[in-house]
């Protein structure tokens, strides 16, 4: 680092500190501000031994972890140094009253290449483990993801002893082709085919077998002290592969999923589907005679063909005596029977007596006694051709993103951007491509049945809310299926898996005004149109139920003439600029101390 850039870094850091403390002082009664700078760019990495362009944040792959506390105000200045547009989606962050910050095409104009844009939102009434990722152009297949932790406020106890450490783990299938090549395959109507491997924290497998794993692959090592308990936050950030996660000779005590504390139960392994997040408590209670394998292996596949597609990392005790040895711990041996996996999913329940983000118990919102106001049966199908193009559908509709985001179109009263006619039951007849969205009822209670008619596993996600997963079973859902719903301790979370040939039912309280994405997390099907939005409008427009459009809102599509040009600059502000800012900040501090105290 040259002396000018190091002094620049110093000023920048100093200025940042003062700003944060100033904001804390000025709003001591209000909620603290936390800011992050994200520089998104390509770097070359070879996770599977083949050099390729991956998407890094601040030169890190995976990106930095956002680690904040309930009700914090978070600002993230995203600098897009890619050669294409970008949006960062904060998956599972509810964005109370501000779908303007959700980072998907239905609510935000993309950040053009070389521009920057600052997200600003409050993590209101939330706790838990989430992750962020780039939502456009299949970019998640190239990286750009990172962890998002919301800690409990100190006054609210967590339902377990404070862990000795907090470890974020990303697992996901991976292709050695980059995302632009993968995108081209999908545009050409081709299947992505089998992934080339599974990465753990952006790294390839440990060489547990010389035939299966080439030499020279950099693998992840997680170091732990013996006799402690760690919180592992595991996220499946992959394209479309369901993974079984396990650690040799160790139990995984499930404690939290996507913002809810679960009934604590031990698992020897857990299926984690694309887009899902879980917190486990890991006791380092084994002897240190060797290191231990951490494994993420593909689920429901022909093991002999998929052996190479296995993620292997190392758990190393600080007093470890040697390397991990021998075969990997086996996963469930049931490739043709998904019953075990579904039963495991059903066993994940809400701890109704634990406090979540608020002091009152999680279960005090008695969802089982609320009357349903709207019912949607959403059914997918295997990919099909529509007007000669390979597309993915939901209820017979393949979604087309409008060039003007839905929320922005509403703000400017533009007509004809979308249709509020998403069908309550799957359309019969030939499929269509349409910008068709769900007319949500503000303060309604919506029941959504997700019916998977595809041959693959799907995970569905809805922005803006946590929903209750009340039931799942094989076969077609019918009115009688309601008799099997869990009306007491179904888990509230932000994703739900739906097994092929099966259904999953969710309940959601539409109390968050905005336009919210409802999609499959499987990247290829999402890219090909398997999504929609739920538009929730308060008939009495006010600033209490929805925040005003942000000052820095980007404009595009029919509104692009409202967009002011942005100075395309790749440099941080100059030293002089920072000195001035610093001086100004000192003046404000001085004034604050001497005049207002
Ligand atoms: C992806 O790889 C292709 C070659 O296979 C290359 O032409 C292209 O520039 C790469 N894209 C990125 C973003 O690295
Ligand atoms: C871009 O970054 C600069 C410098 O940090 C900041 O002042 C500006 O507000 C950002 N622009 C937007 C649109 O967020
Ligand atoms: C549920 O939460 C309560 C309250 O924090 C805690 O004492 C209890 O151990 C938890 N129960 C289970 C089964 O995890
Ligand atoms: C997040 O911050 C808390 C303190 O606020 C710390 O205990 C924890 O280790 C941090 N987690 C990560 C993953 O950085
Ligand atoms: C490595 O994997 C190959 C292919 O599955 C298998 O035949 C071989 O026995 C394994 N080697 C060891 C040492 O386990
Ligand atoms: C989970 O397993 C650990 C041993 O790894 C044991 O100490 C603990 O009591 C078990 N907890 C539950 C809730 O079964
Ligand atoms: C250490 O633990 C491993 C696996 O649990 C076991 O196979 C081994 O016998 C143990 N060694 C000693 C010295 O206790
Ligand atoms: C699994 O794949 C192997 C290798 O391609 C093949 O020989 C075997 O028949 C397959 N097994 C099943 C049950 O499909
Ligand atoms: C739900 O509906 C039933 C009958 O339609 C009604 O009697 C009951 O009061 C309603 N419950 C609530 C909580 O609104
Ligand atoms: C949307 O729903 C509201 C009631 O929530 C209703 O008044 C309105 O007519 C509906 N709009 C359409 C286009 O169906
Ligand atoms: C898909 O739907 C058709 C028609 O209802 C049914 O015959 C078929 O079994 C379903 N397949 C799956 C995998 O659900
Ligand atoms: C909401 O706030 C904005 C800006 O703060 C203001 O222009 C607008 O009039 C307010 N709207 C209502 C309905 O209060």
Automatic annotation (TrEMBL):
Q: Where is the Plastocyanin-like domain?
A: 40-153, 166-319, 404-539
Give the family from UniProt: Belongs to the multicopper oxidase family.
Segments crossing the lipid bilayer: none
User: Major location, coarse class?
Assistant: membrane
Organism of provenance: Glycine soja
- Reported EC number(s) for this entry are 1.10.3.3
Specify the protein's topology with respect to the membrane. Lipid-anchor; GPI-anchor
The cofactors required by this protein are:
Cu cation
Task: Please identify the protein, giving its name as recorded.
Answer: Monocopper oxidase-like protein SKU5
The residues forming the signal peptide are 1-29
What InterPro entries does the entry give? Answer: Cu-oxidase-like_N, Cu-oxidase_2nd, Cu-oxidase_C, Cu-oxidase_fam, Cupredoxin
Quote the SUPFAM superfamilies the UniProt record gives.
Cupredoxins
The record, for Pfam families, names: Cu-oxidase, Cu-oxidase_2, Cu-oxidase_3
Show the GO MF annotations.
copper ion binding; L-ascorbate oxidase activity
């Amino acid at each position: 680092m040259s002396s000018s850039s190091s002094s620049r870094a110093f000023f920048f850091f100093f200025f940042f500190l003062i700003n944060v403390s100033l904001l804390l002082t000025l709003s001591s009664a209000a909620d603290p501000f936390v800011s992050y700078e994200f520089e998104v760019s390509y770097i070359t990495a070879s996770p599977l031994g083949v050099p390729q362009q991956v998407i890094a944040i601040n030169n890190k792959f995976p990106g930095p972890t956002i680690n904040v506390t309930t009700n914090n105000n978070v600002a993230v200045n995203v600098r897009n140094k890619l050669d294409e547009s970008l949006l960062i989606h904060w998956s599972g962050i509810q964005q109370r009253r501000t779908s303007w910050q959700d980072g998907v095409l239905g609510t935000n104009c993309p950040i053009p290449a070389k521009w920057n844009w600052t997200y600003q939102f409050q993590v209101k009434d939330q706790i838990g483990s989430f992750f962020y990722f780039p939502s456009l152009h299949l970019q998640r297949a190239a990286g750009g993801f990172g962890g998002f932790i919301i800690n409990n406020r100190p006054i609210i106890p967590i339902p377990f002893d404070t862990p000795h450490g907090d470890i974020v783990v990303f697992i996901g299938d991976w292709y050695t082709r980059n995302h632009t090549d993968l995108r081209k395959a999908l545009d050409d109507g081709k299947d992505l085919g089998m992934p080339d491997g599974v990465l753990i924290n952006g790294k390839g497998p440990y060489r547990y077998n010389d035939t299966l794993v080439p030499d020279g692959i950099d693998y992840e090592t997680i170091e732990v002290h013996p006799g402690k308990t760690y919180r592992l936050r595991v996220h499946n950030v992959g394209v479309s592969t369901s993974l079984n996660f396990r650690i040799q000779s160790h139990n995984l005590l499930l404690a939290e999923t996507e913002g809810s504390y679960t009934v604590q139960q031990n698992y020897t392994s857990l299926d984690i589907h694309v887009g899902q997040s879980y917190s486990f408590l890991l006791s380092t209670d084994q002897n240190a005679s060797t290191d231990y394998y951490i494994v993420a292996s593909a689920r429901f596949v022909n093991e002999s063909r998929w052996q190479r597609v296995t993620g292997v990392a190392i758990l190393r005790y600080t007093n470890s005596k040697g390397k991990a040895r021998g075969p990997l711990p086996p996963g469930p041996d049931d490739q043709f029977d998904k019953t075990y996996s579904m039963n495991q999913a059903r066993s994940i329940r809400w701890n109704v007596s634990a406090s979540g983000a608020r002091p009152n118990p999680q279960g005090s919102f008695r969802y089982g006694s609320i009357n349903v106001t709207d019912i949607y049966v959403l059914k997918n199908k295997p990919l099909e051709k529509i007007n000669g193009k390979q597309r993915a559908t939901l209820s017979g509709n393949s979604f087309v993103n409008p060039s003007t985001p839905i929320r922005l179109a509403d703000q400017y009263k533009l007509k004809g951007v979308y249709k509020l006619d998403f069908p309550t039951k799957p359309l019969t007849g030939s499929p269509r491509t349409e910008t068709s969205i769900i007319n949500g009822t503000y303060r309604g209670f919506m029941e959504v049945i997700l019916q998977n008619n595809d041959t693959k596993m799907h995970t569905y996600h809805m922005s803006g809310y946590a929903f209750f997963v009340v039931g799942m079973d094989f076969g077609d859902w019918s009115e009688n299926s309601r008799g099997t719903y869990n009306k007491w301790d179904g888990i509230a979370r932000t994703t739900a898996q739906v097994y092929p040939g099966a259904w999953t039912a969710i309940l959601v309280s539409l109390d968050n005004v905005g336009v919210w994405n409802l999609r499959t997390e499987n990247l290829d099907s999402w890219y090909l149109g398997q999504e929609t939005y739920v538009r929730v409008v308060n008939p009495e427009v006010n600033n209490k139920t929805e925040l005003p459009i942000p000052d820095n809102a980007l404009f595009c599509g029919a509104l692009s003439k409202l967009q002011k040009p942005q100075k395309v600059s790749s440099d941080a502000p100059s030293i002089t600029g920072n000195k001035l800012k610093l001086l100004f900040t000192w003046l404000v501090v001085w004034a604050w101390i001497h005049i207002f105290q």
